[in-house]
Amino acid sequence: MNPEEVEFLGEKQLISIIPTFNSSTIHLVSGDIGPFRASLPVNVPLWVAVNLKQQRKCKIQPPDWMDVEQLELLKEAEKASRNFVKMPSEHYMIEGKLLLSIATDDIARADEVRTIIKDIWDIRMAKLRSSVNTLITGKSYGNVDNLTIMEINSMRPLIPHAMDQIHRMKMERPRFSTPSQSTSLGLLNSSTVISTFK
Amino acid sequence: MSLCYSYTPNYFSIEDILVTQERIPSKFLVNVPKLGKLNPSAEENDIKQGTALDLPFWLADPLSFARHPLISIELPRVYKEAYREILKADATAVDLHKLGLYFYELGLYVKRLDPRREVEAILLHTFRSRFKELMDFADDVVCDPVKQNRLDMFERTLFQKAHFSRMQLKSWLNNSEMRLEAATMVINHKKRKRIDVDDLF
Amino acid sequence: MDTVENAEDVQSDESEYEEIAHTAAEVLELMEEAWLNEKFAPEILPHKYDIVECLLGQISHVEENLTNVGNDDLRRSLHQMELDRLRYLVSSYLRMRLEKIETYVYFILKQEEERSQKGEENYLNKNELEFAKAYMQSLDQHFTDRLHFWPGNIPTEWKNQLIIPNIHSFVFMKAKNEIEGVMVSHVNEEEEVVDLRTGSQILISYSNVGHFIKTNQSCLI
Amino acid sequence: MYGESACSLVKELDRNRGTLPPYNNELIGEVEKEICHLIQQNVADDFKAHEDSNVGAGLDYTATIRTRHAIIQRNLRCLLAYHYNRLRCLRTMRWEFGSILPPDIKVNLSHAESNWFSKYSSMLATYMRSIGDDGGVNLTIDLNPPKALYIEVKCLVDYGQYELSDGSLVLLKESNRYFLPRAECEDLIRQGVFQHIIN
């Protein structure tokens, strides 16, 4: 899966916006959104929020966790823990990336927020790399609890493919030409040839 | 396209056909009349019992693996003890590409010749000890060709796939929009055309 | 293969599905899940054409209504964007299936044949099945024509050299509910048993968990 | 060495991944010749062995026949792999170029391959038409997750008139830039007519 596909999945995450326009409910297939009343917060999918923001039709209300103090705590927890800490959002990287690229004016201390999110990502990536070793050196399965889809996807294709190959190395090799047959087949074939020639 | 399979050989696999082209030490147990051509260094009509030849694996395999084998085969030297010791000591220091283009794939074929499973163990050991380096290497934006040249074909495929997806992730982390690209074959086609035109001058 | 004993489960699951009326939003969720499952499962999965058709119906419905909406209306652009998302999801799903069908065509048709004989539900939809047969026939024809020079009987061994999906492929799976006693097989060693909590995520060989996907107890991620 | 030409066929594909090299009639001819030769010799030796065994003397040709058989099988495998992988390549070309191939690629196809290509195109079209109850779904578009509604593109060739799905016409000129609905552009980008501009 490429990152854009993961982003596609993450874009259905609901985000609170403050519209600058009025509109009745819009019946999308993925669910109704609205009604929109200027300056009243309302939840919409991330892809709608991004679109409205780009058209300057709303302000974004950043999710609670997108806050310097909270993120600092999260970062410390991630550093202190051997396991992966549960993230406040299944798609924290996607929300972070999209909102920080289009709505910096709506996010307090946006630059700091961006840095800490990146720090957390880096810490988790480093953890992931060191845990890969235990996978490669013998275990037949690996726990990936609390990893977000973008993080899981960062392991693809290398880790699963490497595990596939290790499995192959342990197995008996399948053969394309069945040898027990080939002797008899050799003679059989030529005799069928003979019969058609005669 | 969107599905990403890991390598598994099949009847039509180009890789597997190239792997089975590798030669392995063989010795004829019987006379084979009329097929002297198999031995390029002799001009006799027949192959005599006891003749030792390096046969391509695709031929050595069916002739050796049957109820009445025509030949006996042995491990290629890179899977024998001397080389196993080198790999055991430090597999990351070895230029695997030099050892054999298809070190792992051929190894998987010939490991049955070693009932003590030491070949299997050395394949696993080699792969595992070199893996971390491969993973780091896939993260480098600019690939060092010297490093790449030390990988065997199988490691190289794995590396290329990993490198491609790591670079996708890197560019996702840095940019906001993905560029839509012309289809791969269309790009190749254009490149080729350009080369053709260059040839004219 | 783990398909045989689970076929019944899959069927009962599907008939259950028909009884429940889904909202459009739920159908979309099911489509997303089917898309991910198909993307990561090495083998082809039972088709979800009921979902596909339902979603296609929604798409045409929205398209029709769009003609009544003004040109630069906000609604129009949001609906249009959503249509693009739905179209992508549906066609990407169908493309992936087609790719598997072509790659494993001999193997898949053999399995479908066996399913029909046992009176089991097919994995391919009627149109996919037709495509698969036409595709296989075109390969057969191409090879047979090429081998006309062969003295004597034209060999057909290659029809038995099936390209088979590697069901041992490692996949990332998420448990949708509690699953007890997942058997993790080891080569040359004893099996290990793992219990999964709801929401647990695990990297594991597909051969150990394929049936949990088909019985809707877990999904691939 | 036996099987050499057959392997060269496969190596040729390996060297040219992502493109389709000209159909190698000459090499295929050599492979066919080798196969025919080996089969005929096997038939002759088999026949002779039968005769000899009736007389109660003569050479044992079993080893020779078995060896030749292995070589025949190898030749067959390479020959089929060559044709199979070319078809897979053609299949990808159908998805990437559409149902009409550029002329300089077309010349690389054998007659049978051209036929297969049209056959594949038409079975794919039949399948795509059969999806849903609304005249079908074109699976060769919507290849990427949608992002923005409109995208900016640069035209790389003098394309001429292009009809948008709402019926309006655009004149596409080389190096001009256009702001068009993404869905309308995808195909032309893939065919290399447009280049996607990201500011």
UniProtKB/TrEMBL annotation, chain A:
Keyword field: DNA replication, Nucleus
SUPFAM superfamilies linked to this entry: GINS helical bundle-like, PriA/YqbF domain
Compartments it resides in: Nucleus
Domain GINS subunit intervals: 65-166
GO BP terms: DNA replication; double-strand break repair via break-induced replication
Domain (DNA replication complex GINS protein PSF2 N-terminal): residue spans on this chain: 2-61
InterPro entries with a match to the protein in the record: GINS_A (IPR021151), GINS_bundle-like_dom_sf (IPR036224), GINS_Psf2 (IPR007257), PSF2_N (IPR056784)
Keyword Nucleotidyltransferase: no
Broad class of where this protein is predominantly found: nucleus
GO terms for cellular component: CMG complex; GINS complex
Record note on quaternary structure: Component of the GINS complex.
PANTHER family named in the record: DNA REPLICATION COMPLEX GINS PROTEIN PSF2
Protein family membership: Belongs to the GINS2/PSF2 family.
Protein name: DNA replication complex GINS protein PSF2
TrEMBL record, chain B:
Lineage top rank: taxon: Eukaryota
Residue ranges annotated for the DNA replication complex GINS protein PSF3 N-terminal domain, each copy included: 12-63
PANTHER family: DNA REPLICATION COMPLEX GINS PROTEIN PSF3
Organism: Photinus pyralis (Common eastern firefly)
Record family assignment: Belongs to the GINS3/PSF3 family.
Annotated compartments: Nucleus
Protein name listed in UniProt: DNA replication complex GINS protein PSF3
GO-annotated biological processes: mitotic DNA replication initiation
Domain GINS subunit: start-end pairs: 79-173
Keyword Nucleus: yes
Quaternary structure and partners: Component of the GINS complex.
This protein's UniProt keywords: DNA replication, Nucleus
Nucleus as UniProt keyword: yes
GO terms for cellular component: GINS complex
Family matches, as CDD domains: GINS_A_psf3, GINS_B_Psf3
Database matches in InterPro entries: GINS_A, GINS_bundle-like_dom_sf, GINS_Psf3, GINS_Psf3_sf, PSF3_N
Function, in words: Required for correct functioning of the GINS complex, a complex that plays an essential role in the initiation of DNA replication, and progression of DNA replication forks. GINS complex is a core component of CDC45-MCM-GINS (CMG) helicase, the molecular machine that unwinds template DNA during replication, and around which the replisome is built.
Automatic annotation (TrEMBL), chain C:
Alphabetized InterPro entries for the sequence: GINS_A, GINS_bundle-like_dom_sf, GINS_Sld5, SLD5_C, Sld5_GINS_A
GO biological process, one term: DNA-templated DNA replication
Cellular compartment(s): Nucleus
Pfam families per the UniProt record, alphabetical: Sld5, SLD5_C
The keyword Nucleus belongs to this UniProt entry's keyword annotation: yes
Keyword annotations: DNA replication, Nucleus
Ranges where the GINS subunit domain occurs: 77-144
Domain DNA replication complex GINS protein SLD5 C-terminal: 165-217
Superkingdom as given in the UniProt entry: Eukaryota
One GO CC annotation: GINS complex
Principal location: nucleus
Coiled coil residues, start to end: none
Family statement drawn from the similarity comment of this UniProt entry: Belongs to the GINS4/SLD5 family.
Function of the molecule: The GINS complex plays an essential role in the initiation of DNA replication.
PANTHER family: DNA REPLICATION COMPLEX GINS PROTEIN SLD5, SLD5 PROTEIN
Name listed for the protein in its UniProt record: DNA replication complex GINS protein SLD5
TrEMBL record, chain D:
Keyword tags: DNA replication, Nucleus
One GO term of the biological process aspect: DNA strand elongation involved in mitotic DNA replication
UniProt domain GINS subunit: residue ranges: 59-131
Annotated GO CC locations: GINS complex
Residue ranges of domain DNA replication complex GINS protein PSF1 C-terminal in the record: 147-198
Location relative to the cell: Nucleus
Record-linked CDD domains: GINS_A_psf1, GINS_B_Psf1
Biological role: Required for correct functioning of the GINS complex, a complex that plays an essential role in the initiation of DNA replication, and progression of DNA replication forks. GINS complex seems to bind preferentially to single-stranded DNA.
Similarity remark: Belongs to the GINS1/PSF1 family.
PANTHER family assigned: DNA REPLICATION COMPLEX GINS PROTEIN PSF1, PARTNER OF SLD5
Record's protein name: DNA replication complex GINS protein PSF1
Source organism per UniProt: Photinus pyralis (Common eastern firefly)
